[in-house]
Amino acid sequence: MTTTWASGKDGSHRATNVLSMIRLVVRPYENPDAQRLVQALYAEQLDTYGFADPPESEVASDYVVPFGMLLVAYTSAGKPVGCGGYRTYDAATQTAEIRKMYVDPSARGQRLGYQILSKLEHEAAARGATQMVLETGALNIAAIGLYTSSGYEAIPSYVEGRRETNRAFAKTLAADQGC
Question: What is the pLDDT of residue 159?
């Protein structure tokens, strides 16, 4: 858990738990806050890799409960600083896919990605998912670290035609994870 220091008017300092100031809210994919964050993710991917799946290529209904979900993380001041979603990937195998994970640069390094990912896993498991899959860019060392430290293991690409710049991961969800 990350601790930051907040300064009082009297010059004093107090420790503040950053994660306790974050609120995760389920939003429709078309929500303006969600779209700003997804567009920022897209721009970052374009800058890093020279290509990315455009946000408008997503099917918004994939992120509607019970088939999926999109979370937006808000600071206590109401600023959207992160997002992440899951959608049903294969209902027959009870597999869900993590998508659109993004944390604004101003909020990075505070385990917000872990908080979003954990909530998505919990919600997917509560709705019957037994496995999660995801893809991330090979150059996104922070994301790869997040996923491997959260129990994800590297797998061959599960999306046909993906470039070698992506890395695929999977995780079996614990039976009690959705409780």
Answer: 84
